[in-house]
Amino acid sequence: MVNNLKSVKGRAKKGQVTVRVDSGIVKACFPRNYCNKNQIKLATGILLENGWESIAEKLQQRLQIELEEGEFDDGQGNFNLGYYQEILKKYGLRSNLKLASSTVTSDDQLPPKPELSLMEIWYSYCEVIKPTLKETTYSKAFRETFTNFIKSALESTKSEDAVKIRNWLVENRNLPAVKKLISHLSKAYRLAIKSKLINYDPFDGMADEIKQLGAKGKKQDEVETESDDDVLDRSKAYSWDEVSIILESVKHTMHWYNFIKFKFLTGVRTGEAIAFMWGDVRWDNEEILIRRTYDRRTKGFYPTKTAKGNQSVIRRFPLPKDGELWNLLKSIPQGKPNEVVFKSKTGKIILGTTFYTVWAGTYGNKGIIPQLMKQGKLTKYLKPYNTRHTFITHQIFDLGRDEKIVSAWCGHGEMVSQKHYQDINDRAMQINPELPASTQLVQQSEIDMLKEQLKQQQELINKLLQDRSN
Which pLDDT value is given to residue 114? Predict the structure, then answer.
């Protein structure tokens, strides 16, 4: 290589372009004194394989010449991204940038798709706005959180269709962050349009369509609760083997292990788990009560409700002595009746947003589920709320539990009307949720048989006593 093209970690002399590896990608790095003392780094499309250094050297020489001739100035003092892309195209590092015909022949036809990938547009945008951002904001928000959001959406949807990507993000990631990301994606496409790389913005107006529903100022019975849609859809639940994998991965962090295991063992909603207090544990009766939820927006406690939200209800859940749930609660230092059972590492109430961050990952946190997926131990990402789906499907499909029993435990009341709720609930309290239904049916049959035998024996004793008295 020529001496002005440095190695992977090398630096160029003042006023020179380098083409080198940066963050695992071969990038063209333009000098700071060219762009208002802000360095611009752009992906080149060069693959890290045998011979890449030779390609990088040739590209560097061409870029240096164009730089010295002022070709990267768009005439308004801005970097000419379009001209840079044209150079890459000539070197075969980018596919033809011309768009497919924009003529729409039917209502079903999708808008024309640019041959520049979404990630290429996003990376270019990040490099352009980098000088306007704080280093921490750029690194954590744009190159980490937002970039990971996009990659996850692309991988999950197997598509670059903007609507599919928007919908997946809304369903699976933090709503305020998604709204910001969609807004920046639209800006990224508009910048590419300005550079004459593409001719339409597929994310135009999407950010405005994302509405955030807050709870502040609402009455208690108007607070938003998590939906039980598709509660019996097994594709939205983890298998019980996968539950064990998830719990094993957090065993070193006991406060999260206890919180997540409680959710898997009871099927409670996140807000209900956060609001669960020691006064709700009734050791003598071998039951726990689910009677309140915590709302992260108002930072207040509210009564639990049925699925239809018309009536507050206290749910009773079995706590078999020496069972898994019993031993889990016994392992936690018991507090006062009005203290929450599950606390953060600092001894404060757990925040739903913090739990989401630990579960899904964001900023500097890699996330429990993404890490397990990366390790090949899990095959899909499901939201924290789907611990509830997992419990319900495990009870019904794996253990053969009656749906009405599970409904009484979990409060997804479409299966049980309020009129019969108490009768079903009384029956549900006689069931051990940790044993298969078939096992308990056998046990119940044996008990019924013993009762019948005792009844017959008692009748015989009474008859003998009566005969003796005569």
Answer: 40
Asked if residues 412 and 392 have their Cβ atoms less than 8 Å apart, the reply is: yes
As a whole number of angstroms, the distance between CA 11 and CA 333 comes to 56
Amino acid at 253: T
Dist. CA 347–CA 167, nearest whole Å: 36
Tell me how far apart the alpha carbons of residues 415 and 228 are, in angstroms, rounded to a whole number: 12
Residues in the chain where the model's pLDDT stays below 50: 1-13, 95-114, 212-224, 307-310, 414-424, 427, 441-445
Identify whether the C-beta of residue 353 lies closer than 8 Å to the C-beta of residue 362: no
Residues in the chain: 470
Q: What is the pLDDT of residue 243?
A: 94
Q: Which residues of 192-228 are buried (b: 16+ CB within 10 A; e: fewer)?
A: beebebbeebbbeebbeebeeeebeeeeeeebebeeb
Whole-number pLDDT of residue 245: 96
What φ, ψ does residue 290 adopt, rounded to 5°?
Answer: -110, 105
Pairing of the two strands 315-318 and 287-290: antiparallel
In this prediction, residue 238 carries a pLDDT of 93
State the Cα–Cα distance between residues 468 and 470, nearest whole angstrom: 5
The whole-number pLDDT of residue 332 equals 95
Q: Which of these, 54, 76, 65, 55, lies nearest to 17 by C-alpha position? A: 65
Say what the pLDDT of residue 277 is: 95
Q: How far apart are CA 189 and CA 125, in angstroms?
A: 8
pTM of the model: 0.48
